[in-house]
Design a protein that fits this description.
Blueprint (H helix, E strand, L loop, with lengths): L2 E6 L5 H11 L6 E8 L2 E8 L2 H10 L6 E7 L14 E2 L3 E9 L2 H10 L11 H14 L3 H11 L2 E9 L2 E10 L4 E4 L4 E4 L2 H4 L5 E4 L5 E5 L2 E5 L5 E2 L3 E3 L15 H7 L1 H12 E2 L4 E2 L14 E5 L1 H18 L3 E5 H4 L11 E6 L5 H12 L3 E6 L5 H4 L3 E4 L12 H20 L5 H12 L1 H9 L2 H11 L4 E6 L3 H16 L2 E6 L16 E5 L6 H13 L3 E6 L1 H7 L4 E4 L8 H20 L17
Parallel strand pairs: 18-19, 18-20, 20-21, 21-22, 23-24, 23-25, 25-26, 26-27
Antiparallel strand pairs: 1-4, 1-10, 2-3, 2-4, 5-6, 6-7, 7-8, 8-12, 9-10, 9-11, 11-15, 12-13, 13-14, 16-17
Helix pairs in contact: 3-4, 4-5, 8-13, 8-15, 9-13, 9-17, 13-14, 13-20, 15-20, 16-20, 17-20
The protein binds fructose -6-phosphate (F6R).
Length: about 600
Amino acid sequence: MCGIVGILGGGDVAIPIFEALKRLEYRGYDSAGIATIDNGEIVRRRAAGKLNALHEKLGAAPLAGRAGIGHTRWATHGAPIEENAHPHATDHVSIVHNGIIENFRELRDELAAKGRNFQSATDSEVIAQLITVFVEEEGAAPIEAFRKMLGRVRGAFAIAAVFAGNDDLILAARKGSPLAIGRGDGEMFVGSDAFALAPFTNRVTYLDEGDHAAITRAGFEVFDGSGATVKRRETVSSASDAMVDKDGHRHFMAKEIHEQPEVVGHTLARFVDPTDASLLAFGANFDFKKLDRLTISACGTAYYAGLIAKYWFEKWARLPVEIDIASELRYRDIPYAEKGGAIFVSQSGETADTLAALREAKAHGQRIGAVVNVAESSIAREADDIFQINAGPEIGVASTKAFTCQLVTLACLAIKAGADRGLLSKDEQSGLVAALMEIPRLIAEALQQEAAIEKISAELSKARDILYIGRGVSFPMALEGALKLKEISYIHAEGYAAGELKHGPIALIDEHVPVVVVAPSDRHYEKTISNMHEIIARGGRPLLISDKRGIKAAGDVWAAIEAPDTHPLLSPLVYAVPVQLLAYFAATAKGTDVDQPRNLAKSVTVE
Ligand code: F6R
């Protein structure tokens, strides 16, 4: 996912644009650039690599101009080199783009046949070239040329454009990728999210799907897909300037891991009444009583949160759950239940595959619930019920606090399902809610093992391959542990159901392959420990994560991490912490870029 900023300012805008890009760098960080209108002409600075490379360029050759656009890129078409960095430009227009232009090949061929000279290998450049053709060949005004361009491109995008000879105009469009307009005093802003605009203004208007807008310093006009003028509501954004701070931590990921006791508590406060350990009223449209089946879908870490929730819905609400990763679910020919419900889990609320799967389920008449962090996101907007987690902005690319907040939200939903369906008595409900209310404290307790985990991680970081195993709710935890480790430390890791080990993966075990065994003292404990002994018998090195009792009963292991005692089904909420810390410290031991690991982006708005 790329980040977009545009400013019509009172003075030179390159530095404010750069500052806003810093807040968006988590979205994409393989190259960046800024274009301004200086004395009527388009001028640009672009650089491959992180934003500091662009900073150096701007230092050596500053950009003047009161109107401009900027971009941080996550490459889809074309390598992350300077020529492919945005903004793209012709003599007439400069554009920044987030998303994918699906028909760019045919457009590129058509434009090349007209003699247009492409300077990059990107899909995005066709936007600038198309606008230019309409301006040059048809004498179209900027807004007309922009609209004609929108009529030709297919795909998902957010676009912002500035025009030569006009330093009081930004044109913007949204289809599939979010875009917000910010109103300042005599200044106007456009950005991928309110977070980017927070240093400038909190008066934010989100474009709707299919909208485009003409922005000047005096104000802006929004047009819907048919070209009709429409009003979109201005909101006061709560995104604050301070949120980008690491708060004394070395990395955002460390800060976000440590925030978990607090943010999980905030999320819980949305769904439970602590005075009598009962559920508050929420999800009025999502009546679990009427559901025959529940579908859950998501990607990556959010998918693992859903996978854990499957155990809860089935146990507490006897509700059959169909769960799949969104990129698969959307293409399956699923016989959806007639009175079915579907829950989509997404931190960003913008993940393209999850959004597409949501639309597919909606088209099949499913009631849609969204567990999202970003309330204004596309997934939230298209859901019947929004179950907003309260994690605050997650900047580290590896999801940590969003995961535990997703879990606590899904746990509340599963308890509500059990209550709605008459399967959990009042006492059982309050027993579970009370156990959930313990979680922030238990997470804080788990964090106290940090120093011990750092030591073990230093050893772990020397391995080339690592396996994670678990049973029951600890199986998705094993999957999540392996994902976390590989994405930030680049160590190859696989998660397995412990019982599945002997059906193949055990062949990988030798003294060089550590195996992280996630085994709280629950009803699966003994079986998982037997699997661990099969590993020991083959010279493997088990690292056991369990509670005091579990560690004591397990006998000799290569290493152990102690976790607090928890409700057996809620253990992932606590075991997430050691698993996250292991990955974090293995990555810092290896010296990788923890917050911005290679090849990744914070949210994936392309399929
Ligand atoms: C892993 C990670 C990803 C995301 C996935 C879904 O640490 O962050 O696997 O969980 O890309 O993103 P959202 O939740 O924004 O839909």
